[in-house]
Specification:
Oligomer: single chain
Structural class: alpha+beta
Number of helices: 7
Strand content: 25-35%
Radius of gyration: 19 Å
Shape: globular
Largest sheet: 4 strands, antiparallel
Low-confidence stretches: 1-32, 163-174
Number of strands: 6
Distance between the termini: 68 Å
Length: 174
């Protein structure tokens, strides 16, 4: 729809450039870098950009989630037809740990020239909080022809160590 296209194109936060210091030299950079799809990135790099954007999402502007949505396939964007619906999905369980993790591990697996998956395990304070399968597709239509984009994100169940032990231990009394 025209409204969802406008929501996707609107940049949620136009901050003025802020000075940064590097080796005593003052530099200016936009504090909200907003990467967009280009065909120079590997499927793994695209997933890393998305996971990092979620980790650093601003809850008031959702600028990190805006970045994530830019890397969704056109079909994925049609299925989740508005940015506000996308935000509500990502902020709900079981995806919310992607917004609260302190570290992430990436396991890439490319199946064909045009399809790959990346398993992402999120942790907070050393404990596993989520495991996700990013399904990556190389797009064959303009304007994203040749670019890796996310077709979907599946959620893998997490077995808590204490729960796993209690399932394998028998409780017997003498």
């Amino acid at each position: 729809s025209a409204q969802s296209a406008a929501e996707d194109e609107a940049i949620p936060n136009d901050d003025i450039d802020e000075p940064l210091a590097a080796n005593g030299i003052e530099l200016y950079a936009d504090r909200n870098v907003r990467p967009r799809p280009n065909c120079q990135r590997s499927f793994l790099h695209v997933v890393q950009i998305q996971v990092n954007a979620m980790k650093h999402n601003n809850n008031n502007t959702n600028d990190g989630l805006w970045v994530v949505r830019q890397f969704a396939t056109p079909r994925n964007r049609e299925a989740i037809d508005s940015f506000s619906r996308f935000v509500s999905i990502v902020k709900s369980e079981p995806y919310a740990p992607l917004l609260r993790h302190t570290s992430a591990e990436f396991e890439p697996d490319q199946y064909t020239d045009n399809f790959a998956e990346v398993t992402v395990t999120t942790r907070r304070n050393g404990s596993v909080t989520g495991e996700y399968e990013f399904q990556m597709q190389k797009i064959s239509q303009e304007p994203y022809e040749g670019c890796w984009m996310t077709g979907g994100v599946g959620v893998n169940p997490i077995v808590e160590p204490s729960r796993a032990r209690s399932n394998t231990t028998s409780n017997t009394t003498s």
